[in-house]
Amino acid sequence: MPPLLDVQDLGKSYPTGRGKRLEVLCGVTFTVHSGELVAVVGESGTGKSTLLHLLGALDSPDSGTVRFEGQDIFEADDAELAAFRNRSIGFVFQFHHLLPEFTATENVAMPALIGGMSMARASSRALDLLRQMGLENRATHRPGELSGGEQQRVAMARALMNRPGLILADEPSGNLDEKTAKRLHAEILRLRDDFDQTFIIVTHNSSLAAICDRVLRIEGGCVIPVDGTVGGTTR
User: Fold this and answer.
1) Which of 122, 135, 154, 196 could form a disulfide linkage to 109, CB 3.0–4.6 angstroms apart?
2) How distant is the alpha carbon of residue 93 from its chain centre?
3) pTM of the model
């Protein structure tokens, strides 16, 4: 099977304001197959979040390619990239970024509504996702009425709303206590096992990294496989 995601020689730098550029990523190369749960680890400031932003087309690289289902995403124009992000990528961040004036159901439905789905269909699917997350009794609550763990599970449901091929998660349990984090980690495993959902997860949490199929470490702007795994395959 060809990889779902094929990253080749990806590079990214930023201007420092003194006529120079800070190289954050250089020659990053790896592949991810459907149904894989991949952790990205490394020290703070090594480019982990930058990598996720590039994979999700929230930023553009200086060099290299990102192919999703065989297509180079950066050959698309702005409108096509926006549609790609909405349709094919689910995002989960350390801070849930739920809209405070909307209910849990409305927050989960938002990506589908943006994509043109009717309110009735979007609400029905959002409620189904909330039930899967054990939040059916919180469907009409607004974010301020939910615990941190509940908010993050709502954010996970929102990421799943459009049935994306890939979920990119940046420290999804970083703000949760240990018990709540373990519940979220179990939910991620369930989604992988039951729905063949693919995840790339940036994390400092060793317990979360330990349950992943593969671990990639970023050092010196490059990706270094951990435990003998290289480019989507095991040695």
Assistant:
1) 122
2) 8
3) 0.89
